[in-house]
């Protein structure tokens, strides 16, 4: 009997000196976008917040996106919580990363951690958000709760469009030989607003260009070597931007391409693609 009593007393003493196990609810990090319907060129603002009484002392949160669907708006990432040592970086293509640490747990109330902006390059896109590191204050000790917080916080946000007016028709070729040409078309998905107009631009001089009278077609002829972003912008009658559509095209104009293009042009053998 005395032996059993000694074991019980020893167990009680051990429990007395051990820190109480952490039993608070799992912190949740949420991501909200200010719009869900987008077009090419739409700027979306994202707000990332943490739940109340999170007890978080350290957090790394990451939002990832496809660079063919979104691009980061330079210098748009802002840390909103001034009570913690934190930094947010959006300069790595395809992701925005937030990292924070504190000597004591974050504020007890639910609040915004950071905000940032992405600019849409397509009318349909998604972003994904997840926690890659999380620690909570457990009676003065940091406890790793990354797995639980990640499970509660991981989210994918989908964006769609229901009001786009134009789309650049997928061309039959995207790499054009020197002296060859292709006609790009801005197909209307619905009736364009009265008085609106389509204007085409290129990111460099790799192609010679010609716009049709109605602005719906754009002929590009390979002129020098390299890739080019072709942009079709729909303007309202007052000059405001209604929609922006882009496509990447490549001009193949190396030394031998130019030589071959010269002879094909000489014999009328250059090609114009219009599909």
Highlighted features:
275 residues, Immunoglobulin-like, five-stranded antiparallel β-sheet, 3 helices, 13% helix
Describe this structure in words.
The chain is mainly β and 275 residues long. The protein has 2 domains: 26-159, Sandwich (Immunoglobulin-like); 166-273, Immunoglobulin-like (Sandwich), CATH 2.60.40.1080. 13% of the residues lie in helices and 47% in strands. Strands 3, 6, 7, 9, 10 and 11 form a 6-stranded antiparallel sheet that branches. Strands 1, 2, 4, 5 and 8 form a 5-stranded antiparallel sheet that branches. Strand 16 (207-211) and strand 17 form a beta hairpin.
SSE topology sketch:
Blueprint: H1 2-17, E1 29-33, E2 43-50, E3 56-65, E4 70-72, E5 78-79, E6 85-89, E7 95-101, E8 111-120, E9 125-138, E10 141-144, H2 146-153, E11 155-159, E12 166-168, E13 175-177, E14 181-188, E15 197-202, E16 207-211, E17 217-222, E18 226-235, E19 241-252, H3 255-266, E20 272-273
Parallel strand pairs: 13-19, 14-20
Antiparallel strand pairs: 1-2, 2-8, 3-7, 3-9, 4-8, 5-8, 6-7, 9-10, 9-11, 12-14, 14-17, 15-18, 16-17, 18-19
N- and C-termini, Cα separation: 94 Å
Q: How many β-strand runs?
A: 20
Give the domain tally.
2
**Oligomeric category:** single chain
Tell me the strand percentage band: over 45%
Low-confidence stretches: 1-23
Question: TL;DR of this structure?
Answer:
By secondary structure, this protein is mainly beta. It has two domains: 26-159, Immunoglobulin-like, CATH 2.60.40.680; 166-273, Immunoglobulin-like.
């Amino acid at each position: 009997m005395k032996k059993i009593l000694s074991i019980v007393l020893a167990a009680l003493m051990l429990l007395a000196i051990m820190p109480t196990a952490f039993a608070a609810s799992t912190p949740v990090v949420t991501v909200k976008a200010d719009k869900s319907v987008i077009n090419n060129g739409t700027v979306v603002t994202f707000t990332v917040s943490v739940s109340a009484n999170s007890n978080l002392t350290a957090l790394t949160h990451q939002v990832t996106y496809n660079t063919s669907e979104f691009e980061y708006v330079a210098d748009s990432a802002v840390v909103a919580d001034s009570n913690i040592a934190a930094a947010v970086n959006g300069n790595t293509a395809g992701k925005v990363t937030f990292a924070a640490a504190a000597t004591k747990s974050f504020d007890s109330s639910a609040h915004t951690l950071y905000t940032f902006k992405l600019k849409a390059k397509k009318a349909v896109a998604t972003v994904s958000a997840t926690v890659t590191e999380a620690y909570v204050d457990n009676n003065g000790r940091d406890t790793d709760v990354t797995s639980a917080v990640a499970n509660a916080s991981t989210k994918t946000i989908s964006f769609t469009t229901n009001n786009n007016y134009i789309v650049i028709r997928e061309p039959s070729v995207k790499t054009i030989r020197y002296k060859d040409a292709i006609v790009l078309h801005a197909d209307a998905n619905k009736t364009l607003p009265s008085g609106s107009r389509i204007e085409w631009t290129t990111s460099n001089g790799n192609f010679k260009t010609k716009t049709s009278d109605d602005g719906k077609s754009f002929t590009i002829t390979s002129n020098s070597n390299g890739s080019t972003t072709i942009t079709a912008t729909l303007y309202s009658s007052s000059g405001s931007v209604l929609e922006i559509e882009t496509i990447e095209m490549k001009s193949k104009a190396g030394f031998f391409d130019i030589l071959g293009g010269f002879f094909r042009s000489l014999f009328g053998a250059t090609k114009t693609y219009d599909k």
